[in-house]
Amino acid sequence: MIIGKRKISLIATIVFYLSIAAGVAVMLMLFGAAIGLWEPIDGFRYSRQYTNPIGYTVVGLSVASLGYLFSKKQLIGKKKALISLVIGIAILGPLINSQLGEQIRYPGIHDYTTDMINPPQFITLTDEREGARNTLVYGGPEIAAQQLAAFPDIKPIMSTLSPDDAYAKALAVGEAMGWEIIGADPAAHRFEGTARTPFFKFVDDTVVVVSNAAGGSRIDVRSVSRIGRGDIGVNGLRVREFISLFNQ
Description:
Blueprint (H helix, E strand, L loop, with lengths): L6 E2 L1 H22 L8 H32 L3 E2 L1 H14 L1 H8 L10 E3 L27 H10 L6 E3 L3 H14 L3 E6 L4 E7 L6 E11 L2 E10 L8 H13 L2
Parallel strand pairs: 1-2
Antiparallel strand pairs: 3-8, 4-8, 5-6, 6-7, 7-8
Helix pairs in contact: 1-2, 1-3, 2-3
């Protein structure tokens, strides 16, 4: 029997506030670039370097805190320790998901297109675009081979729509995907744009070109990262999403 008033565990309280601070730190690494704290590549680097160690630390402290509280029955604070544990597991969520889910390896490229022979060319956007470290010059057969191995489904969109109607639909798809449209040219049936990744806010550049084809039109798409040798498949997934949305 426990005699006297039960006291709140100081250890559980400290671990709880440390876990809150850890969660805030991880969120800042993900979204700090969006509020101007640092460049996207810096946030990405911080996340790769510190997220898992922070998660392991929070989980370890939470488990130790729970064990201590169960051994000291006169103390309360298990709820705080459990919340801390949940926060730690959430921080480790991407790592856990990668271990339990199907591991997909993307090639170390950052330029994806539906036309690997004559890829759509950028006109408004140039190699001097802000923050760009990658060129807009297509890498040729070596890049094409890597894309084909990872995304064999990325092909030109063949539509029964007229070029005018296909252009209007393609423009609507780009806007629906959140692209900032640049250099829209209805007469030439082409437009360019910039897209930002949800996390870290990396800027990628896109171009869509609509051309005449037998029975309708052909739509080609290209998406390129401004920085980074590889993009973990982001641009390929963006092109795939565009094709899927256009075909709906």
